Amino acid sequence: MFRSQTRCAESRTPLSYMTCPDENASIPSFEEIGQGRWLNRPEFHVPCLGMSLIIIILYLLELRVVLSYRKYSPFTSTFFRIWTVQAIADLLSLLCYIIAFVRNMPHTWGFWMKLNATPLPSILGTMNGAVVLSQMIGVCIISLNRYLKICKPTSELTVKFDSVSTFGFSLLILVFPTMTTALILFPGAPRYVYIMGQSYVIAACYQNPKMLQAFSGIASIMCIISLFISTICYGQVMQNIAVLNCVKRRSHFNVLPVESHV
């Protein structure tokens, strides 16, 4: 997650800090972090562009349908209000991910050619890491949303919150991450830099590299599993959206709509 202040920092080879034998490697200072000298890697990976664009298109289609039916049940329920907030958050993270591509394109190819056996710690140091983490959090929120909707007694309790506006739910869900990141809007506010897993990377790189590789592989597998879970969930959502569109067309011909559940 970091670039050493010593001999590793002088190397121009991406990810060379992961194999540097210097035992005196240390965490970069705030000055180095601010100047960007500690991170000489791209913030975007070309193979992920197609997936990001597909997700954005699907989200926009789903949001269009949800907003079109927002006056009808069950789209006025707590379930879809939480879903709408999560969709907007995912769209913003993906847009930031794509924007980061423009100024990092020259470094992308060299990054992939020199990628070592610890992909997750390396990727977490880039913009891709932020997207991976946000999607993992998104899967957690989706799972929680379905739990609150289906399982008792939460399924009965959440009905009482259906009268709360979507804006109110947005504040309830996003207030904590907003408070923790709002400091960047104030130039005089203190800066807190947390590089995920930095102490573990230090110990594993110089003492037990195989342990770090195993940890990286397990974490990468978990991210891939989360991706498949999201794909299955949104596939079911799209099927139900198709059913609802069919019901809407029938209603134009004065045909009683078939009851459907999303």
Global outline? globular
What is the quaternary state of this protein?
single chain
- Measured between the Cα atoms of the first and last residue, the distance is 41 Å
Mean pLDDT: 57
Number of strands: 0
Q: What is the ordering of alpha helices and beta strands? A: HHHHHHHHHHH
Largest sheet: none
Overview of the molecule:
- Helices cover 64% and strands 0% of the residues.
- The chain has helices at 7-10, 30-35, 47-68, 78-99, 105-113, 119-124, 127-150, 154-157, 166-181, 198-207, 209-252.
- Helix 4 runs parallel beside helix 9, helix 7 packs across helix 11 (209-252) and helix 10 crosses helix 11 (209-252).
- The protein is globular, with a radius of gyration of 22 Å.
- The two termini are 41 Å apart.
Please write out the topology.
Layout: H1 7-10, H2 30-35, H3 47-68, H4 78-99, H5 105-113, H6 119-124, H7 127-150, H8 154-157, H9 166-181, H10 198-207, H11 209-252
